[in-house]
Amino acid sequence: MDIQLKNINYKYNEGTPLEYQALHDITYNFPKGSFTAIVGHTGSGKSTLTKLLNGLLIPSSGNLRMGNRTITPHTSERDLKLLRKKIGTVMQFPEMQLFGQTVAEDIVFGPMNYGSSYNDALEIAAEKLNTVGLDSSYLEQSPFDLSGGQQRRVAIAGVLALEPEVLILDEPTIGLDPHGQQTILTLFKEMNQTLDTTIILITHQMEDVVKYADNVLVLNEGKILTQGTPQEVFEQDHLLQKAGLDVPVIVSLAREMEAKYNFKFTSLPLSIEALTEQMAHYLLEVADEQNN
Question: What's the whole-model pTM score?
Answer without folding.
Answer: 0.90
